[in-house]
UniProtKB/TrEMBL annotation:
This is GH64 domain-containing protein. Residues 31-55, 428-517 are annotated as: Disordered. Residues 46-55, 499-517 have a biased composition (Polar residues). The keyword Cytoplasm does not apply. Gene3D superfamilies: Beta-1,3-glucanase, C-terminal domain, Thaumatin.
Amino acid sequence: MRLFSGQTLVAALLAITTAGDALAAHGVKHHHTHAKIHATSEEGKSTIQERQSPPESFSIELVNNLDSDSVRAYIVTNSAGSDQALLITAEGTIYRPVSGEMGVATIIPESANCGIKLGALGTTTTIVMPVHMLQGRVYISDGELDIGVLPTDYGSFLQMPSFAANSDPNFNTSFGFVEANMPEACMWANPTYVDFTGLPLGLEMVFEDATMNVSGLPFDGISELCQGLKEEESKDNYPWSKLCINNEDGKPFRVLSPQHKADRFSDYYDEYIDRVWHELADTGIQFDLQDGSPLVSCTFAADEMICDRPSAPFPKPKTTDIWGCNSGPFAQTSDTCYNLIGARFCAAFHRATLLLPGGNLQPNQSFDTYYPDGGPSNKYSKRLHQVQTDHQGYAFPYDDVKPDPASKVSGLIAGDNPRILRIIVGGHEPAKSQDSEPYEGSSGSAKSSASAQSIPASRSHDNSHAESAPSSTESSTPISSPSPSSDQPTSSTPPAYLSTEQYLPNTSPESTTADPTASLLQTSVTLNREEVSMPSPSKNGGTPSVVEVLVIETTFMTQFVTKTECVSSLSTITWNS
């Protein structure tokens, strides 16, 4: 997943191991997620009871809105200063996974207590975090998940549940996850649907005097999404309904993104691609990189797009390139300008905005023009945004590309010194709020997901909680969800709890390009950039064991940065799902 209009640089990586899949250098989509760990073979060292540099009074709250007593949470994070994956136990301690026999995945035992059991419907389980959330994920499942440790010649890896491989023991378990990163005081978090849509999850970030939220899907969102995909299938005769996966009762519980069924949509954009090359041949196309630099002008040749910068041409894409945004003209390179153009170009194909009025400038169109009727577009993304209660959340790899912050649909929330990251399992509400406008592609509109509300003093935590144990607590009082607020801050200095994107909807690139904060941010990105070097395939013969990469990205968007608090965190490292 990419943040801030796709402006990404590779900063670090975690490796994953599969057999027979093609090697990719960026944006790999895969059936298993493996996080690299430094595992120990000594059982006594696997669980570290002491707390290591805990954040100041920061908790993860898990609100169970499902009528199920089988809900579990798995908190995965990284150790500061290393690529070591950690799990957080129900007691709020650190668990370091233990490796076993070479090449054989060892399931983390139930006794490790890493599967945090949530209480009954309406209860809240609280975990006081012993460490900062670094490149983290919180998996939520209706049932237990098998998480394994896989030692290989390249190191040991944490094997996470598969959403697409029916041979995986977790395949029939409903689950989802949210992403979070809090290297210092500033936190970024978001839901993601880039690979699949699963268990409905809402997200809230709670500060001393306010709450920001992304509502996610309603409790019946999967069924509604699948019904919408059936309707799209009846219009264009492509198998959109086949993206839905049913449980044993025949009810859908997961929806894959089209990139994971790309063989069924292999020619979907072919005619549209040809039309773009033909209809924009006279006018060409321009790209706004949104970094204060001049617009990039490009022309179309027979099988490539040639721009005044960078010097390398962009090959004409295939449909399969568009679904993943990571191959053909959209493959990541060492040239930042090339990557930024590729992000905007790919987003325009997903949303089918290239042939709309003004489509020869990207990004340019507002969200109410996305996914027009009568032609190809990413119907998974279109219908997903319709179903989402507030229409927010990444639905394809560059769903954060936008002409201005007011057109944001990515669902990213961020701010300084949050006290709580609250995950609402099952969604905020049993149905959409009545005052929510429908997102109807070319005829609807999306709303901002941010809300600023007072929270009861009883929900705040003092520093002593970071040292106390046990740290898992359960409340029998359901937490009501905040309703979106239309109030916007008017002071010249943004409140600490507001992200710069939400605070500066009218900021132009020219007004912030010279800002010293932007310069500091650019420097931090440059310093964090690393080249990705890949191990060679297995030397044992036969089918090679190919090491793919789960890329962690440094992201930035200088025109929206005007304050110095969180500069290090703005160049955030996040999972690429």
